C-alpha cells in the first residue's frame, strides 16, 4: 500500500467487502428457495391433475394418463432401509476395529480405503453391479434361494439378477464408508478417562467399547444412520442401472428378487420421454417428494448431531 | 475360568471386527480391479483421441467426452468455488446469531443433503425449459451448486481454527477487517480451502445424474458451451446399457479414466493433509 490512507477509505473498502460476502451468501439462500419454488411450479400440472391419488396410486400408465407413484416411493424407502440395515453392522465393525484393535500403523491406510470407497462415482458402482455382480448373484445366490425357499412370496422367482435386493446390496456398499467414518469419529470421542477407568478395572477392550464407547456414542450412531439413509434415498445412477426398472414390485410381485423402480430410477429413465405437461409434472412431483423425504432425514440428522456435539462439549 | 472366557470374547471381537473390515475393503479392490482389467483393453490411441463411432460402426473414441467433462467441471468450478469461499468467509468471520446468518447456514447444510438428481431437475426447469434446448451451461450450473456447500464448509471450518491471536494482532495493528479476513485468516487457512475445493472438484467429476437432463450427450466435438455436450459420466451410463459388446467395453475404458481422475485427486489430498498433520504434531 502506498502512502497513508484515511480511515474512511478503509471503512468503504470494508463495507464493499462485507456486501460482497453478503450477496454471495444471499445467492445461496436464494438458490435454495428457488429450488423449492421451481420444483413446486414444475409439479403443479401433476398436483392439480393427479391430486392425492398420485401418492396412493399403484399404476403408472402415461398413455392413458394414469400416474400413481406408490410403488416407486415404497421401493425407494425399502431399498434404502435394507441397505442401511446391511451397512450398520459392517460400519460399526469397522469403527470398533479402527478405534480399539487396529495397530497405529494400519490406521492411515484404513482411512484411505474408507475415503476412496466413498469417492468412487456412483455410475462406476452401476457398471460394476450390472456387469460383474448381477450375473454372479443371479447364479449363486438368487437361483439357489428361489429353488429352496421360493415358496415364500418375498423370495419368489424367477431370478433376474438385476433386482430390488441387488440395488440394496450396492447401496449398502455405498453407504458403509459414510456411516463408518462418522462412527469412527464418534467412538474416538469416548472420554479417555472413562475408557482408562474401565481398562484399569480389568475390563477387556470389547467390554469397554460395549459398556462405555457405544452407549456414549449412541445418539451419534443414530445420526450416522440418518446420514447414510439420506444418501441411499437420493442415490440415482447405481440404482437405475441395477434395479431393473419394472413397476411390478411390490404389488404384482412382492419378491425381493424381482426388478423394481425407485423414485430416482423412474425420473432418470423416463424424463426424456415426458412430452406432455402432466407427464413431466408427475416426474417433477416425484422429485419433490424425494426432496421432502431426504430433507426430513437431513433435518433429523442435524438435530441429533448438534445435540451430541453440545453434550460432548459439556 | 471366567477370566478366560471374557478374554476369549475379546479375542473373538478382535478377529470378527478385523474380518468385517477386510470384507468391507473387498468391494473397493474388486471395483478397482474390474475397472482396470476391463478398461485397459479398451484403451488405445483412437480411443483417447477420437469421437464415438455412429451406431452400428466399430471403433471410435471418447475424446469429446473427456474434453466435455473437463469443460463442464471448469465452468462449475468458476461458479461454485468463489461463491463457496465467500459464503464460508461470511459464516466464519461475519455471521451473527441472527436470523439472516442462520438462514444461510441452514441453506448450506440443506444443500449438502439434496440428492444430485434434484439439482439436474432444478437446472432443467430453470435453464433448459427457458432456452428450449439441452445445454452444457445448465450442467455446469447444477454441478456448481453442488460444489458450494462442500467449499463453504471447508472454508468455514479451516478459518475457524485459525487462532484468535492472529485476528487480535491484526486489530492491534489497525489493519482493516477485510484485509485481516482475506490476507491473514484466509491466508493461514488456505490449505484447507484448497483441499476442500479439490474434493469438491473430485466429487462433481463423478456426478452423473445432474448431467442427464442438462448436458445430455453428443457424438461430436463440442461446438459451444450452450450446446449439448458429451461427458465421461453420461457416456459410461449410455454405453454400459447399450447392449453392444464393444460399447460396453468402451464404457469400461471410460470408467478407468474417470476412476483414475477421482482417485488421483483424493490421494493427493490425503498426502497433503497427512503432511500437514505431521507438521502440526
Protein described:
The complex is a heterodimer of chains A (314) and B (281). Chain A is an all-alpha fold and 314 residues long. Chain A has one domain (53-313): MetI-like (MetI-like fold), CATH 1.10.3720. Chain A has helices at 7-50, 53-56, 70-101, 104-119, 122-149, 164-188, 192-200, 205-234, 237-242, 263-270, 277-313; strands at 60-61, 66-67. A two-stranded antiparallel sheet of chain A has the order 1-2. In chain A, helix 3 runs parallel beside helix 6 (164-188). With 281 residues, chain B is an all-alpha fold. Chain B folds into two domains: 1-40; 45-280, MetI-like fold (Orthogonal Bundle), CATH 1.10.3720. Chain B is globular. The chains are: A mainly alpha (314), B mainly alpha (281). Chains A and B meet through helix 1, helix 3, helix 4, helix 5 and helix 6 of A and helix 1, helix 3, helix 4, helix 5 and helix 6 of B.
Please outline what is shown here.
Chain A has 314 residues and is an all-alpha fold.
Q: What is the residue-averaged pLDDT of chain B?
A: 92
Order of helices and strands of chain B: HHHHHHHHHHH
Could you state the CATH homologous superfamily of chain A?
MetI-like
CATH architecture tag of chain A: Orthogonal Bundle
Strand ordering within the main sheet of chain A: 1-2
**Shape, per Cα inertia axes of chain B:** globular
As for the number of domains of chain A, it is 1
Low-confidence stretches of chain B: none
Give the DSSP E fraction of chain B (strand runs of 2 or more residues): under 5%
Number of strands of chain A: 2
* CATH topology descriptor of the largest domain in chain B: MetI-like fold
What's the total helix number of chain A? 11
Structural class of chain A: mainly alpha
In CATH, the homologous superfamily of the largest domain in chain B goes by the name MetI-like
Question: Roughly what is the average pLDDT of chain A, rounded to an integer?
Answer: 91
Strand content of chain A: under 5%
User: How many structurally independent domains of chain B?
Assistant: 2
**The first-level CATH class name of chain A:** Mainly Alpha
Seen as an oligomer or otherwise, the chain set is heterodimer
Amino acid at each position: 500500500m502506498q502512502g497513508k490512507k484515511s480511515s474512511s477509505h478503509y471503512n468503504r473498502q470494508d463495507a464493499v467487502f462485507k456486501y460482497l460476502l453478503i450477496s454471495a451468501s444471499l445467492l445461496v439462500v436464494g438458490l435454495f428457495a428457488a429450488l423449492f419454488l421451481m420444483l413446486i411450479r414444475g409439479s403443479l400440472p401433476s398436483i392439480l391433475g393427479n391430486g392425492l391419488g398420485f401418492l396412493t396410486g399403484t399404476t403408472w400408465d402415461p398413455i392413458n394418463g394414469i400416474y400413481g407413484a406408490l410403488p416407486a416411493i415404497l421401493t425407494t424407502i425399502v431399498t434404502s432401509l435394507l441397505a442401511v440395515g446391511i451397512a450398520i453392522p459392517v460400519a460399526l465393525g469397522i469403527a470398533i476395529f479402527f478405534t480399539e484393535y487396529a495397530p497405529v500403523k494400519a490406521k492411515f491406510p484404513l482411512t484411505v480405503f474408507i475415503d476412496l470407497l466413498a469417492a468412487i462415482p456412483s455410475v462406476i458402482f452401476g457398471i460394476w453391479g450390472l456387469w460383474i455382480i448381477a450375473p454372479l448373484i443371479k447364479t449363486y445366490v438368487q437361483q439357489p434361494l428361489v429353488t429352496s425357499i421360493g415358496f415364500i412370496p418375498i423370495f419368489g422367482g424367477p431370478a433376474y439378477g438385476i433386482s430390488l435386493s441387488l440395488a440394496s446390496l450396492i447401496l449398502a456398499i455405498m453407504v458403509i464408508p459414510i456411516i463408518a467414518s462418522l462412527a469412527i469419529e464418534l467412538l474416538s470421542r469416548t472420554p479417555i478417562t472413562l475408557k482408562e477407568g474401565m481398562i484399569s478395572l480389568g475390563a477387556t477392550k470389547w467390554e469397554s467399547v460395549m459398556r462405555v464407547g457405544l452407549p456414549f456414542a449412541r445418539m451419534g450412531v443414530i445420526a450416522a444412520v440418518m446420514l447414510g439413509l439420506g444418501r441411499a434415498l437420493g442415490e440415482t445412477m447405481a440404482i437405475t442401472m441395477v434395479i431393473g426398472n419394472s413397476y411390478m414390485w411390490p404389488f404384482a410381485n412382492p419378491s425381493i428378487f424381482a426388478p423394481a423402480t425407485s423414485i430416482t430410477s423412474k425420473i432418470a429413465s423416463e424424463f426424456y420421454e415426458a412430452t406432455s405437461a402432466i407427464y413431466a409434472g408427475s416426474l417433477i412431483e416425484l422429485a419433490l417428494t424425494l426432496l421432502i423425504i431426504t430433507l426430513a432425514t437431513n433435518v433429523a440428522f442435524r438435530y441429533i448431531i448438534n445435540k451430541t456435539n453440545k453434550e460432548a462439549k459439556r | 475360568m471366567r477370566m478366560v472366557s471374557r478374554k476369549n470374547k475379546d479375542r473373538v471381537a478382535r478377529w470378527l471386527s478385523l474380518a468385517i473390515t477386510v470384507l468391507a475393503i473387498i468391494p473397493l479392490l474388486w471395483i478397482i480391479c474390474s475397472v482396470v482389467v476391463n478398461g485397459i483393453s479398451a484403451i488405445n490411441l483412437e480411443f483417447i483421441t477420437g469421437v464415438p463411432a455412429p451406431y452400428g460402426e466399430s471403433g471410435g473414441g471418447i475424446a469429446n467426452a473427456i474434453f466435455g467433462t473437463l469443460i463442464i467441471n471448469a465452468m462449475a468450478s468458476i461458479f461454485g468455488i468463489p461463491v463457496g469461499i465467500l459464503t464460508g468467509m461470511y459464516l466464519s468471520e461475519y455471521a451473527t446469531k441472527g436470523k439472516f446468518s442462520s438462514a444461510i447456514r441452514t441453506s448450506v447444510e440443506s444443500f449438502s443433503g439434496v440428492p444430485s438428481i434434484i439439482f439436474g431437475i432444478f437446472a432443467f426447469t430453470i435453464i433448459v425449459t427457458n432456452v428450449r434446448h439441452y445445454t452444457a451451461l445448465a450442467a455446469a450450473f447444477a454441478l456448481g451448486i453442488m460444489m458450494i456447500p462442500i467449499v463453504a464448509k471447508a472454508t468455514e471450518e479451516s478459518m475457524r481454527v485459525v487462532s484468535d491471536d492472529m485476528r487480535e494482532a491484526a486489530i492491534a495493528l489497525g489493519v482493516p477487517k477485510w484485509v485481516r479476513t482475506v490476507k491473514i485468516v484466509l491466508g493461514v487457512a488456505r490449505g484447507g480451502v484448497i483441499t476442500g475445493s479439490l474434493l469438491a472438484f473430485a466429487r462433481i467429476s463423478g456426478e452423473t445424474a445432474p448431467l442427464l437432463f442438462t448436458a445430455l450427450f453428443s457424438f461430436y466435438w463440442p461446438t459451444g458451451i450452450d450446446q449439448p455436450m458429451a461427458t465421461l459420466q453420461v457416456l459410461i451410463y449410455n454405453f454400459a446399457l447399450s447392449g453392444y459388446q464393444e460399447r460396453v467395453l468402451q464404457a469400461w475404458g471410460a470408467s478407468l479414466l474417470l476412476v483414475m481422475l477421482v482417485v488421483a485427486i483424493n490421494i493427493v489430498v490425503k498426502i497433503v493433509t497427512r503432511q500437514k498433520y505431521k507438521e502440526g504434531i
